[in-house]
Design a protein that fits this description.
Length: 298
């Protein structure tokens, strides 16, 4: 079944750009990503002294000839990648001012990256959260799994209060193996609590990427007459003369954006502020290329 947030032409254009992990990964099958464990792939890692029980086929006889000691060659083991998308589906993700609805923009990112992941042999899953996690689709590398992801993305409705902070703590506790955790939200939460959740993921040795989705209207606040502003999460409303509060509002928003960015930096999370008027394909391409240029880190 086709979905309006899936663009086959964009998938074709992006399919040649690999989705890389920035940190060693762990998986059940051989793949393209570096593992924290030593194995026997083609990339040499280091020597270590031979101990009884080691595979004698991995002895380096040239090193023995030079030192008269037995050494084993170790290589980087390659593995597959698990990607967990954690997407905020609270009420504020329904907002669309100058740009597309924030949740719809998130759908485009998730559907595209999950396709690229499965297409290169990796596994993708999605965690939907409102007040708490209300739907969890475990990662799978089966092509048929993508249809389930797409169907659930299409059914997701933005409503209620965000529980993204607790969701990240829950994900950190639940995921046993290292993974790439991609978080998509507007992050209207306490920034310190959000930072603590990211640190929890970092402590579990996950690779973290953050897409901070904002409508330009939320940042620029360009209103010329009194407005009635409604909180899309709890329904409260306030009437204000926009011109009188614009400067103070913009200053507060810039401070908020900077605090979110700092919390991501402190947790070694890959941070991307994304405006919903941007070309989502370019957003994804920039994300993929940036990860290629950074390479994997121990």
């Amino acid at each position: 079944m086709a979905h309006d947030f899936v663009d086959p032409e964009a998938l074709a254009r992006l399919s040649n750009v690999p989705l890389e992990a920035r940190a060693p990964m762990q998986g059940n099958i051989s793949g393209r990503h570096r593992s924290p464990h030593r194995g026997s792939s083609v990339e040499f890692a280091e020597y270590r002294k031979y101990v009884p029980g080691d595979d004698t086929r991995r002895l380096d006889w040239k090193a023995y000839g030079r030192s008269d000691r037995y050494y084993i060659k170790e290589f980087e083991a390659d593995t597959n990648l698990r990607i967990y998308f954690v997407v905020d589906v609270s009420g504020s993700m329904a907002f669309s001012g100058d740009g597309e609805e924030k949740l719809q923009f998130a759908r485009r990112i998730i559907s595209t990256l999950s396709y690229l992941a499965v297409n290169q042999g990796d596994a993708a899953g999605v965690c939907f959260c409102k007040e708490k996690i209300h739907l969890d689709i475990p990662p799978s590398r089966r092509p048929a799994h993508l249809q389930l992801v797409y169907d659930q993305l299409s059914k997701a409705k933005p409503e209620g209060i965000t529980g993204i902070v607790q969701a990240l703590h829950d994900v950190a506790e639940k995921i046993r193996q290292r993974a790439l955790v991609i978080v998509l939200s507007d992050f209207f939460v306490d920034t310190k609590e959000f930072g603590d959740a990211l640190q929890h993921l970092r402590y579990r040795k996950h690779d973290i990427a953050v897409f901070h989705l904002m409508d330009p209207q939320e940042i620029n606040f360009e209103f010329e007459r009194p407005q009635r502003f409604v909180d899309l999460e709890d329904g409260t409303a306030v009437v204000a003369e926009a011109s009188l509060i614009a400067d103070e509002y913009r200053e507060a928003v810039q401070e908020f954006l900077e605090e979110i960015k700092v919390q991501c930096h402190d947790a070694n999370a890959d941070y991307h502020l994304v405006k919903t008027t941007e070309d989502y394909e370019k957003v994804i391409l920039d994300f993929l290329i940036a990860r290629l240029s950074k390479g994997t880190k121990k």
